[in-house]
Amino acid sequence: MTEVDHLELVIITGMSGAGKTVAIQSFEDMGYFCIDNMPPSLVPKFWELIKESGKVTKIALVVDLRSRSFFEEIQSMLIDIENTNFIDTRMLFLDASDSELVSRYKETRRAHPLAMDGLVTEGIRKERAILEDLKTRASIVIDTTTLTPRQLREKINQEFRSSHETGFRVELLSFGFKYGLPIDADIVMDVRFLPNPHYIPALRPLTGKDQPVYDYVMSFPETEEFYQRFTGLLQTIMPGYVSEGKSSLTIAIGCTGGQHRSVALSERIGEALATEYKVNITHRDKDKRKETVNRS
Q1: In sequence order, which residues have a C-beta less than 8 Å from that of residue 158 and are 6 or more positions away?
Q2: Is the pTM for the entire model greater than 0.70?
Q3: What is the rounded CA–CA span in Å between residue 218 and residue 234?
């Protein structure tokens, strides 16, 4: 088992209601292993397990405040982390004005963790006093008073995403209409209008990943026209998805059985998009016919 020799850790903390849920979702989209509200006393053992596994190199840890003793545990945890030689730590502190925090609590009808039996304003006052020292230690402080969730995600991306990284990814899914529509697709395209290799005996048992089927599907002028127009449309609209803060786009390409045409076109479209975006291709129903034959 290979030990990891460098671990990037982001500690997310700050005022309750200032946006930690949005923050942790942003780090998940950037590929961080995220943990919400782990007790600080368990963190040292967790680091050792992570180091030994060798599989996780980026972690985002949300630390919420519940009491003065909890805060003291956080301080002890930070000292332990600083004494390690393989963890690169940054702390993100989220803040907001008292009036905005009160407004958010009223909207959600949640009780402040330090004012279970009192006023929200009193809980906020107590929390500010306890977190004052922690805020001064933070490497990045973001005031979310006037930020929308989307704007907060954008600021976090700007601060923490490496210059060579792009969090946006494209999920290409081929499928067969006879097995049902994929429920998680953002865009669904029907390619059943193209000539069907199913009616060619030599091609019937093959799939769109086999060269003879791929070449057959691509040999028709209507296939080429569809490919050029559809990829052009995708290249036009995807920058808009990125600027809107969307982390992924699922494009489903469907034919009758999900074995030939949709598979071949998903492969070609995926290859074209991979020059600009992270692309993952899944062929949901490619082997369904084979599985059915085997069962019978």
Answers
A1: none
A2: no
A3: 19
